[in-house]
Amino acid sequence: MSTYDLVADLPLHIDGYELEGLVQNVSSDFERKTTIIRLRGGGEEGVGEDVVYDAVDHEIAQKAGPTLALAGEWTIRSFSEHLATLDLFPEPAERGHVSQLYRVWAYESSALDLALRQAGRPLHAVLGREPRPLTFVVSLRLGEPPTLEPVTRRLERYPTLRFKLDPTPSWDAELIAGLIATGSVDSVDFKGLYEGTPVDNPADPDFYLRVVAAFPDAWIEDPKLTPEIDAALEPHRDRITWDANIHSIADIEALPFAPRMVNLKPSRLGGIKPLFDAYDYTAERGIGAYGGGQFELGVGRGQIQYLASIFHPDTPNDTSPSGFHVMDPPPGLPASPLPPAPAATGFRWG
């Protein structure tokens, strides 16, 4: 039986739903907006979080309100099939298909939470898995011009913190030496697969090799493999991981070489079935996985932590508590690994 089959036939009763907007200035120096989906039925509430990146998409949906025909008797499977027939965006999404995946995940994760709460069971029990302590890293960009300060400020307060950093060509020898001295870099994300975004990076073999050589034990995420870069990074293939291009099992199969590790972001897979099928696919083939977030501001962060704790708790999960997102993280945040914190019922963490 597949992992998805364990939840697909859970009964689901929906009376209606509501939308709630969240907003926060986060450490990447932008105002993040998300939308909480609250499905209600049978005296219970299920929640999920829409992590579409464009603020206007949230504003339009929140202004339109709960216009989708979701009420009725379903299973997780039939609800997903019904959702696929609906237009989830009152106006065309700014980023097209990828935003569609994010919003599908929001509604399906809310439905899964509601179905589990109506059944009186937590997700891990239905899947036959035990939550384990969750290793996490904090994802950061070091500004332009880049400085050590975002890293050292956090380490002063949280000395055991580990990082996934976004290198840029402006990283000089002094900065790299300072980062090496901290001993805190677990991953470097080249953002090589993005185009037309503020985080685009050039495919520069000298830049890539400078960083890769400096951090010989770090994972290398999303390099852009031009023929020259592919040849240069060939000795480091065991460390190369993929994120931005992973929306499906087909995307994993289409990678230029068999990966040792991939980032399975629940929202980017776009639904319970494609996500759970990807967990099965990677496990069957001995491919490692780690989780990633999308600057969730609410329940969505706990949900990706929950999933990571039962599917890949010991990898460099980019699932830090959301308190680390702000420019100056406050004291008192939990250290890695996070102790298991599943709710008594539903798809919730903490």
Counted beta strands? 12
Q: Which fold name is given in CATH as the topology of the largest domain?
A: TIM Barrel
CATH superfamily of the largest domain: Enolase-like C-terminal domain
Overall spatial form: globular
Distance between the termini: 29 Å
Q: Could you describe the largest sheet, including whether it forms a barrel?
A: 7 strands, parallel
Spatial extent as radius of gyration: 20 Å
Query: Low-confidence spans: pLDDT under 50, at least 5 residues?
Result: none
Beta content = 15-25%
**Order of strands side by side in the largest beta sheet?**
6-7-8-9-10-11-12
Number of structural domains = 2
Q: Could you describe the 3D structure shown?
A:
By secondary structure, this protein is α/β, with parallel strands linked by helices. The chain has 2 domains: 5-122, Enolase-like, N-terminal domain (Enolase-like, domain 1, 2-Layer Sandwich), CATH 3.30.390.10; 126-325, TIM Barrel (Alpha-Beta Barrel), CATH 3.20.20.120. Helix content is 35%, strand content 18%. It contains 13 helices and 12 strands. It has helices at 5-8, 55-64, 76-83, 97-119, 123-127, 149-157, 173-182, 205-214, 227-233, 249-253, 266-269, 272-284, 299-311; strands spanning 11-14, 16-26, 30-41, 44-50, 72-75, 138-141, 163-166, 185-189, 219-221, 240-242, 261-263, 288-290. It has a 7-stranded parallel β-sheet, with helices on one face. A 3-stranded antiparallel β-sheet has the order 2-3-4. Strand 9 (219-221), helix 9 and strand 10 (240-242) form a beta-alpha-beta unit. The longest helix is centred in the first third of the chain and has 23 residues, at 97-119. The protein is globular, with a radius of gyration of 20 Å. It starts with a helix and ends in a 39-residue tail after the last helix. The model has no long low-confidence stretch (mean pLDDT 95).
